[in-house]
Please model this.
Amino acid sequence: MTSRQSRSRLVVRRFIRRRLAVLGLFIVVMFFAFAYLGPAFYKWKFDKLDFTSLLEGPSGNHWFGTTQNGFDMFALTMRGLQKSLIIGLVGAVISTAIAAVAGAAAGYFSGWTDRAVITLIDLLLVLPGFLIIAILSPVFEGHTWLVFVLLLAAFQWMITARVIRSMTLSMKEREFVHAARFMGVSDWKIILRHILPNMSSFLIIDATINVSSLILAEVGLSFFGFGVQPPDISLGTLINDHWQSASTANGYQFYFPAVLLVLLVLSVNLVGDGLRDALDPNAKVGEQ
Amino acid sequence: MGKFLVQRFAYLVVLVVIATSSTYFLAAAALNPRSNFEGRNPPPSPEVVDSLLDSLNLNDKTPITERFERWVRGVTAWNLGDAIDGGSINDEMRRRMGVSLRLLLIGSILGSLAGVAAGAYGAVRQYGFSDHAMTFVSFCLLSIPTVVLSVFLANSGASLNNAVGQRVVYNTGEYTPGLAEWSGAGITDRLQHLVLPSLVLILQGFAFYSRYQRNSMLDVLGSDFVRTAQAKGLRRSRALIKHALRTALIPMGTFFAYEFALIFIGSIFVEKIFSWHGMGEWFVQSIQKNDVNATAAIGMFVAILVLIAGFLSDVVTVTLDPRIRRS
Model:
């Protein structure tokens, strides 16, 4: 058995030991399946109106009930879940990638690259992302939601980049990096092939945690109409449309998307926590 | 020590200036005040619109650098300009700052105190029942968006009133109009309005700080100096508070600073759901009204808030950490 196999086995074994993390992973996978496959098997579509049942509570026909106009709440929620999931995933990958490249470059090259990155990080930390994205919202109003995801990622990477920078600083003095440099490997190749893969555990954990913070950020901005724009639907726009019904008899319109959202974020956080324990080489769990 | 603080302050001031200017430029480029007049019936003549926008320093036909110059001249004379629908921004800001302060002060202070106390206690009782319970609760709370938590608490408040049969708490507004401000009835009324929004802030502060405080306390508890303090004969509680907690608070200073901006953002949600008319609500309205001046003023307000918090955290660090004080 090679050491690589045994390492991944150890990681999997440690992860499975964390019951809650496995439960979280199961819920996330189920959400994906429901969000993307569910609508194909479900009777109502998110953009089809049912004029015979307006503002009706949950039933066998409309699982999550209907809205005032006769939209099916389950179809809407699944549609919103799709967008929230994809925003979380794409944004998290982009954000961690920016952090990895900027942080590693700052640590590896030092000098003015380092100073530029550090100043940028400090500046972006002073500018609250929420406010800036809200101010910029009229600009991306007509564009695809991908612009919005890019902006979300642009304000998410800074603290990770700081950590990666300091990890790079210590790693660039290690033998394998020196060896690669003396063999004439180019700087960027060293960063991408030798330095970043050595931090993969940290990068994976960071990306997982970013998923939940980006889902929350999306909801917050969309709640004020500064995020996902109609006709797109996300969990944030659904909560924005229906929060005022929460105190009425039709509270299901708010509580279905809201509870799904909380469950989703909670599950992603549990997965992140489990991954941290499983990937951390200092953890003692599951090693016998 | 003094030199360190002066350097930090200068650096923070530079950052605030850059952040405020960026906010102005972004707002001036992204928001379109002219569109406010487009839907009007009858449509105002372009000359009227131009002169009105000119008087407000909002005309997009003036180069952006010129508008910025005029804005900076105003700001240096303590004049933040006029709002798009009339009225001085200075006055509006003064009024709304008071509202936000009354909303945030109690909740954020109690929240951070509760978080620090709970985190430290959990670390001392690591893996005990209370530790597990608190970790679980804060983990769940951190997964609930402010919006959902606020709506949920607002509804719980309404249910509580129904269950008791009379008004215990209010879930909209800051006070009931018509009551004398400093009378007993007036103060009780304000407190009844304050309970629910403060609870949101307290729960979130508790969840956020207790996690970090627990980690930072755990790092310290294993160190030699805590053991030495106890070996010298110090009582356990005294060793834990004077030696362990004091050291464990140092890294928290940074979190307090960055949390300040987050508290403001959280207040945007709380103000909307509980209908308080503070800075957060103003920010949302200013963007919706394409009011560049008000938006930039709020951006500056937040930047200064972060500056003050950042500087306070530096002061706290210097006071608590003798290594920095000496160097």
Summary: Confidence is low (pLDDT under 50) at residues 284-288 of chain A. The CA atoms of residues 15 and 43 of chain A lie 38 Å apart.
